[in-house]
Structures are given as C-alpha cells and as structure tokens.
C-alpha cells in the first residue's frame, strides 16, 4: 500500500501553506528525525505556545479553529479540552494519544507515526501545555512495531534537546511522554476501554458519566485525542485560525485538511492530505485513478469497515461529516474502500461481522450475542442454506444493535454496513434463501453462541 500525499500523478506538490500535516514528508519515505524536522520549522509552534501564549489562549485558539477529532467520532477538540478541570489544585492530569488504529481499511495514523514522529510529539507537547498535563502516553497498536521504534527514538531525541522532561524551554513546565504498546484489541479504540487497558485492566468501556476529563486514567483528569487530531495542533498555533479555516473547500462545515485514502482494486491505492469538502469522485478518480482494468465499482465505504456502503452514484458527495451524512452514512476515518463487481456482498458482510463479533468485549448482551447471531445467519445465507425470514431477522438485529441500544458504539458501527448492504443489495441476500426452507418468524430462531 502506497503511503503518499502527492496529488494526481504526483502533479500537486505539498507545501506548508496547503498541506500542514504532510509537507515535511521525505520523498523516499524515510522518517524525518529531529535535525531535519527543526530545519523544516519543527517545534516553532511549541516555542510560540510556550513563550507567547497563555494556556487558556491555546485552548481557545484550537476551539476557534474548528478542529474536530480525526479518529472517526468527530467531536470538537477545543470543546473536549475545555472539559478539563480549571482547579489549579489538581496537579496530576494525563494526556493520552489514541494510536490504537485497528479500523479495517485505515492506516493514516501509521504513516504519521512512522514518517513524522516529531509532529505527533510537538502536537502532544503543545496540548499538554494547554491542558496542564504533566504526563502523556501514546497508546499504540501492538502490531505497529516500526511506529513504536520510531516514536521511541523521537522521544529520546526530544528529551536530549530539552523538548521533553523537566523545565521545557525554560518555562518551568514539565512533561514526560511514554510509548505504550497495546495487546491488540479493536475495542481499545474506545477511549475508556483504552484507559482500562492502560491501567492493566480488561479493555471494557466504562460507564459515562463520569467522563475521562473528570475521572480518567488512575482516577485523574484525562484527555484522549487521536494521532491525526494532535498532529493538526502545531500548524493551528503557528499559522492561526483564519488560515486553518481557509483550507477547507466551500460548503464544508469541517475545517482544515484531512488524510483521506482509497483501498481496494483501484489503480492507485494510497493516502493523501486533502481539504475537507473535496468530493469522493475526485478522491476516487483523480487520486486513486478509478478501478483497475476489468473491474467496475459496485459499492464503496467512505471511512472504514464501520461505515455504511454507498453506491457509485453517491461519489459526488463532499468528504466531510455533513456531506457524507447527506447520503446516509458517516465520514468515519476518511479512508474509503472500493468494492468491485466480483465481490459477493453476503460473503463480504460475513467476513466483516466475524471481525466485529470477535472484537466485541462481551460486556453487554446485544453486542455479545447479537453479532455472533448475525454471523450465524450470514454463514447460512452464504452457503445457500438461509431460511425465509432470515433477512428480516438480520434487519431486526440492525435495529436492536443500533445507536443508543448498546453500552458503547462498537455494535452500532458493526451493523451499519450490514443494514446498508441489505438496503442496496438485498437480491444477493435473497439468493441465499433456500426455497424449500420453512419460514421462521423474525428474531425467533435460537442462537447458540460459539456453535
């Protein structure tokens, strides 16, 4: 998979004015270490934040910029920061970077950590200053061994340069940063499950409230932000709110740029930094090059396996949260997947639901039992052994596992692609219903977990 942020056929070159996340990338794909990073204006934003800005001013600047979380939920970052307590007597606070990138079809944070580790460190340093947090953790997907190696080296470089540790830049502010590799669970992408795992507990989501800003890791105020989110902070501080807002296309309600990509049988699968509001058609045709010869686009997902399927006629939708919502699903991580015309949707959904069922923490009944039930039904349909009523049962599960019905957002994300696949490709599901099977009322068939 190509990790790049060049434009179509490499004609569009990156610059600091238009590509705040990726302009420092090397053409050879090697990591940018401290000397080169500083030569490319690295840590200038941190020096500005420490020398010229009050801590509350940093928070307000990020809030005014309109920066939203880049992990998939899209919560306003400045608002989240504003939830941290103002009480100066609370002297133990934590900043956590959610780098547990396990969403299928998503690899954007990996590129940033492997090739621009100091950008993430600078973003966390400025954020720690704003939030008055004295210690930070990068909770990293365990399989990202290269990212772990590069981040640990970058942390040591920053320490040696006085950019981490005690009395940073002579400010009297202390900030320690650690890289923590996880054990490999999708559910750790949920911030409170991540906190439990960091504490050495089972990775179950926590009940909210209290929210992490009040009671987080080891019971202390905690802010959790995604890798790409934190990597946006230095440019906002360095170049200002108006410039950052100007990066987005007209019509977009989301500000700045976004790492977007396309995978599947496209001619040029890859990753690009693009302005919010670019159309999915531009991303698919101009950047990904369209489908490979001999294949046709059947469907696509806009942002990871937990987003609903869309059709080719939806490609004119703008890539921002509201633009994708208009065609019936979520922006998610912004890394799209093309489904070609050789793929059977029942088999694809069976594969997806098996993943989500396996990754369920098992805490709440709808998710623990409902996802394996969907797998059982999909396997039967895939083998041509489905019964009359199975499709209705699957649609019932989509409703029962939807938003607000489960303890966290894992199950709603898992069934969103299932519901959309039945909506657009019901005939493929119907083809797996054996005509001689007796009808069974929807949601009446027994489930044997693990059978």
TrEMBL record:
Native species: Pseudomonas umsongensis
Enzyme's top EC category: translocase
Annotated catalysed reactions: a quinone + NADH + 5 H(+)(in) = a quinol + NAD(+) + 4 H(+)(out)
EC number in record: 7.1.1.-
Function comment: NDH-1 shuttles electrons from NADH, via FMN and iron-sulfur (Fe-S) centers, to quinones in the respiratory chain.
Upper lineage: Bacteria, Pseudomonadati, Pseudomonadota, Gammaproteobacteria, Pseudomonadales
UniProt keyword Transmembrane, yes or no: no
Residue runs in coiled coils: none
Alphabetically ordered keywords of this record: 4Fe-4S, Flavoprotein, FMN, Iron, Iron-sulfur, Metal-binding, NAD, Quinone, Translocase
Positions of the NADH-ubiquinone oxidoreductase 51kDa subunit iron-sulphur binding domain: 346-391
Similarity-based family: Belongs to the complex I 51 kDa subunit family.
Keyword Protein biosynthesis: no
Cofactor(s) of this protein: [4Fe-4S] cluster; FMN
Name of the protein described by the UniProt record: NADH-quinone oxidoreductase subunit F
